[in-house]
Amino acid sequence: MPERAAIRAEAARLRALFEAAGALPVETSVLQPAEVLLDLYGEDIRARAYVTSDALRGEQMLRPDFTVPVVQMHMEHGAEPARYTYSGEVFRRQEEDAQRANEYTQVGFEIFERAAPEAADAEVFAMFFDILRPLGLRAATGDIGILMAAVEGLRTTERRKAALRRHIWRPRRFRALIDRFSGRAVVPEARAALLAMADPMAGAEPLIGLRGPDEIAGRITALREDAAAGPISTSEVQLLDAILAVRETSDNALERLRDIAVDMPAIHGAVDRLARRLSAMSERGLDITKLDFEASYGRTQMEYYDGFVFGFYAESRPDLPPIATGGRYDALTRQLGRGREIPAVGGVIRPGLVLGLGGAT
After folding, report:
1. For residue 183, with 0-12 CB atoms within 10 Å meaning exposed, 13-18 middle and 19 or more buried, which class applies?
2. Which of 200, 225, 262, 359 is deepest in the core (most CB within 10 A)?
């Protein structure tokens, strides 16, 4: 592993490249409030966060990434449009792989831009592509927004769509819900017996746990409403499966998704955004006929990505984590903006891995 001084020097080099692209250097506190952040990260990050308690400030966590605190900073004080860069340590437990570092340096680049979001996607990706080109990495791309649009267009209840949206980043749970809502999964005997009762709360045992009677009654009502709703159609499930199965070069993936959109009009807008992004990438000299696209890519990563996602991998070193990752997180700015929002996209590079793979300093 490269020495800390070499990593710091490489981080400074990378940050200078982003500053040359107009990014303002910013810093965030190593210690962050846990309550808000834990709800924004995916299961993987939540499970590996270092969380502690402070008598005055409540639960705190060691910074697991920079994007969320940078968005918080921008939504409170930032002008528009804006570009930021940063570097510093992040912290994540590695309980299943002692070989991976639990403290490492990230360098990032973020763009907050209303006018041309697809062009901003292309700019961020092209910068990372050019910076990492000497390492011969494999670039992977995807678009969470296409699946989100497909879920939004399903002919089913709002409650079901909300559950599916919430679990898009948990593929197994998402699949289990699709099987349940489409009637593929057998209703558990205990649930069927509960729903058959005229008054499930009558004669119930004393309550144990944090849920009160009103919350339990509300859950029973929701289960009954769901049981009364018709199943998601087989054709819609097949279209969802077709979207999730798209894994081709970007040009071919676009054509395949356009074909699917004929039968699932709800994804037209998301597919059009993909087309504009690919056009913007081509204008920047990227060969989209050699760029991989996977519709399900990024679903196990941080939950704040809701559009374009990307990652760079060393195929000769499958033991390594991604060298760089990034994506679009418009919904995060809305969640943290207290009524304001702005399209935003960015990414991070790990300078220690760049050096370990022979990157220049």
Report:
1. middle
2. 359
Contacts of 162 by beta carbon, 8 Å cutoff, 6+ apart: none
Confidence of residue 361 (pLDDT cuts 50, 70, 90): very low
Q: Has 65 been labeled as part of a binding site?
A: yes
Is 66 annotated to bind a ligand? Reply is yes
Tens digit of each residue's pLDDT (9 = 90 or more) over 132-181: 999 999 999 999 999 999 999 999 999 999 999 989 988 999 999 999 99
Helix ranges (H only) for the chain are: 4-20, 34-40, 43-48, 67-77, 117-132, 144-152, 158-166, 171-181, 189-196, 213-228, 234-244, 250-263, 268-283, 330-336, 351-356
334 is in an annotated binding site: no
Closest Cα partner for 32 from 51, 46, 55? 51
Antiparallel, parallel or unpaired: β 138-143 and 292-294: parallel
* Whether the predicted pLDDT of 260 surpasses 50: yes
Task: Say whether 241 counts as a known binding-site residue.
Answer: no
Distance of CA 200 to the CA centre of its chain: 39
List CB contacts of 39: < 8 A, sequence separation 6 or more. Answer: none
Q: Which long-range contacts (CB under 8 A, 24 or more apart) does 127-132 make?
A: 127/17, 127/18, 127/21, 128/310, 128/312, 128/324, 128/326, 128/347, 128/349, 129/286, 129/312, 131/14, 131/17, 131/349, 132/312, 132/323, 132/324, 132/349, 132/354
Does position 249 have pLDDT exceeding 70, yes or no?
yes
- The predicted model gives 236-257 an average pLDDT of 97
Is 304 known to sit in a ligand binding site? yes
Q: How far apart are CA 171 and CA 299, in angstroms?
A: 7
Which amino acid, residue 234? T
Q: Give yes or no for residue 199 having a pLDDT over 70.
A: no
Contact 48, 64 (CB under 8 A): yes
Are β-strands 138-143 and 308-313 bridged in parallel, bridged antiparallel, or unpaired? antiparallel
Query: Does 129 count as an annotated binding residue?
Result: no
